[in-house]
Amino acid sequence: MSSRGRENRDDPGSSSRCLTLLEKQKYIEDYDFPYCDESNKYEKVAKIGQGTFGEVFKARDKKSTKKFVAMKKVLMDNEKEGFPITALREIRILQLLKHENVVNLIEICRTKATVNNRYRSTFYLVFDFCEHDLAGLLSNINVKFNLGEIKKVMQQLLNGLYYIHSNKILHRDMKAANVLITKYGVLKLADFGLARAFSVPKNDQKNRYTNRVVTLWYRPPELLLGDRNYGPPVDMWGAGCIMAEMWTRSPIMQGNTEQQQLIYISQLCGSFTPDVWPGVEELELYKTLDLQKGHKRKVKERLRPYVKDPHGVDLLDKLLQLDPNHRIDADTALNHDFFWTDPMPCDLSKMLSQHTQSMFEYLAPPRRPGQMMRHYHQQINQMQAKPQDNSLIDRVY
Ligand SMILES: Nc1ncnc2c1ncn2[C@@H]1O[C@H](COP(=O)(O)OP(=O)(O)OP(=O)(O)O)[C@@H](O)[C@H]1O
Ligand SMILES: [Mg+2]
After folding, report:
1. 72 assigned ligand-binding residue
2. What sequence ranges are listed for the domain Protein kinase (predicted)?
3. How do residues 109-126 score in pLDDT, each as one tens digit?
4. What is the 22 CA–ligand 2 centroid distance (Å)?
């Protein structure tokens, strides 16, 4: 896709050294990318994201000035081999997925290769623009979701997950910043930069996927314990963390290290034992890590003061199951009473119409743990400074 690929094969600079720089420039500029428009058909309006893999801009289509897009730059820094394989994977997956609750990839475009950029085009993934991301919305205290609206968010999120899982795709980076919401209240799963296709393992042939995926605070226990034969439940754990965040307004388990994340999980969901999670003892890190014993499961108890709605508490309990085989799947979750009792899921557009400014994680001040969370984190830190009977430490969000 890049002009460099062509340079390697019949670069005028190497095969016919007598070409002047101007001729060389013309040669490359004339190179035709029939399915890849130039990025100058869009006009950048503002930077809205800075991810691990590049910057994201809000931009306007010059032809129809009312149409906004999001342009995600493909990071080419360390690429000696042309277009990065990780971006190719993201594009292939996005091209496959077409659903109301999955972000829509419009096209890939590129800057012109010129002498100024040493004939290296910059590529962009161009998406339909969404006005907000969920992390941005949750960090703004003026944005208030009622129970019906929370149900609508979760219903759309689970619809998106049901669709991608049915298409044998794992997202592997569920978090509030990767959940977009349009001003009309339509939720879109975004950021397929870590996504991959999966197959259901046969008994004798286990998958060996990398477990270094998912942002730490949303990473499920099986990945933290080294599982490489995982599946859709990894995304369901993230859905549970996001659902709790709809009430707590900040991520519920903010570990600084993998070890600390495991501690937070066991203090909320109970210690990892073969009783509650048959087969956990076979995971690579189960024996090598010093896992805390004796923690009781406290999911319902801890989240009830925030969530209040008993069906909501019950669904959270089913999403935040330690054993991935017992974790609820998207289909079953969509049939949960939470979505079928009053107040029913309701449209978000009215609430969102009160906010005229876009809200993105990138533009928001860092989210701090709330008062009660701070109290809890202080306790954890004290506990880590002086080893003691951890079962006495109370978890408070
Ligand atoms: N279509 C879109 N409309 C509006 N904003 C978007 C869109 N796509 C991405 N963004 C914003 O840009 C941010 C970063 O995008 P994305 O998550 O795809 O990139 P990334 O580099 O993989 O990020 P990270 O590594 O931080 O997860 C998102 O969190 C969101 O705020
Ligand atoms: Mg992201």
Report:
1. yes
2. 42-339
3. 999 888 888 788 899 999
4. 40
